[in-house]
Amino acid sequence: MSSARMLTGDRPTGRLHLGHYVGSIANRVRLHQRYESFFIIADLHMLTTRNSRADIEQVAHNAREMVTDILAAGVEPERATFYLQSAIPEVGDLNTLFQNLITVPRLERVPSLKEMTRDAGKDEMPYGLLGYPVLQAADILCVKGQVVPVGKDNAAHVEVTREIARRFNHLYGEVFPVPDMLMSETPTLVGTDGAGKMSKSKGNAIALSDDAATVRRKVMGMYTDPNRVRADVPGTVEGNPVFEYHDIFNPDRAQVAEFKDRYRAGRVGDVEVKEALATALNRFLDPIRDRRARIEAQPGLVDELIVTGTERTRVEVRRTLVEVRRAMGLSSAYAQVRRRAERYRKAVATSA
C-alpha cells in the first residue's frame, strides 16, 4: 500500500445504488488497496440542501447504511477509516480560516453549485452551498489528503482545494500537500425510468441492498424503446436503459450482442431481454448481498468502525489545526495577551 492518503466519501442521504457503484464505489474498491484511505460521512455537506429536523434525525441510520453498502461492495474495514464529519468540530475551525483564502467570484464560477441548487429545488443558493468547496477543502486538507478520486463533473471542487492549499502555503509556510486528482470517467448510470441519472429521490434506482425479487420487479418495469409496441417491431438499442445496463453488468458479451441484433431486427421481446438483465444484475449483486448479510449479523460492528475511525481522524485533525494556527501566528497572538494578563493579575494581587 502507498503511504499517500486518499480522501473520499458521500453525504448520508440514504442507501447506495447501482449509480453510486458505477460512478464511484467500484473505483474506491480498487484504490483503497493502494492508498491509506479516509472515507468521510459528509453530514455537514448534507445540510447545504437537506437540513430539516427530519433529515438530521436520519443521519445515524443513513451513515450505518452507507458504510454497510461500501463494505459490502468490497472495501475492507482494516484498510479504511470511516468518520462522521459533524463529530469533528475542528474541521469547522479550519473551514473558517480557509474562507479568507478564496473569493466569492471564484466560488461562483464552480459550475456544479448551480446544478446542486436547482436539483435541491431551491430558488436561491444558500450561503453554505456557495462555500461547499471551501468546507470540502477543509475535509481534504484536515487529514493532509494527497489524492482525491474525482470525476470530471467534480474536478472544479477539488481545484478549489488545490488553490487554497497553495495560497495557505504561500502566505504562512509549507503546511499542506497540494492534493492530486485521480481522474476517472465516473460514468453516469441512467435511472430505470430513462429520465436522467439514477437517484433514490426520483424513485428510479436499484439499491445495492435490494433483494432478488425487488431487482426483478424494477427491471421488468424499466423504460425501453417507447415506439416499440410489439416484439416484432424493430427497436432502438442506443439510449435504451435496458441495454445500457446489459453493457455494464452482464458479463456474457455474446448474449448481449445477440440480444442487440435480435432487438434491432424485431426478433426478441422486451420481456426476454429484461429477464436476462434481471438475472445478470442479481448475479452481480449476490456477493454484495452475502457480504452485507455477514456485516448485519454483527450488530454494532459498523457503529464501532465509525466511532473508531472518527476518534482516529479527530486526533489527526487536531494535530493539523495546531500546526495551522502556529503557522498563521494565531497561537502566539493569544499567548502574548495571556502573558500580559497574568502579569497584571500578579501585580493586582501584590498590591492588594
TrEMBL record:
Domain of life: Bacteria
Entry annotated with the keyword Mitochondrion: no
Entries under SUPFAM superfamilies matching the protein: Nucleotidylyl transferase
Keyword terms: Aminoacyl-tRNA synthetase, ATP-binding, Ligase, Nucleotide-binding, Protein biosynthesis
Top EC category: ligase
EC number: 6.1.1.2
Molecular functions (GO terms): ligase activity
NCBIfam families with a match to the protein in the record: trpS (TIGR00233)
Family: Belongs to the class-I aminoacyl-tRNA synthetase family.
Listed name of the protein: Tryptophan--tRNA ligase
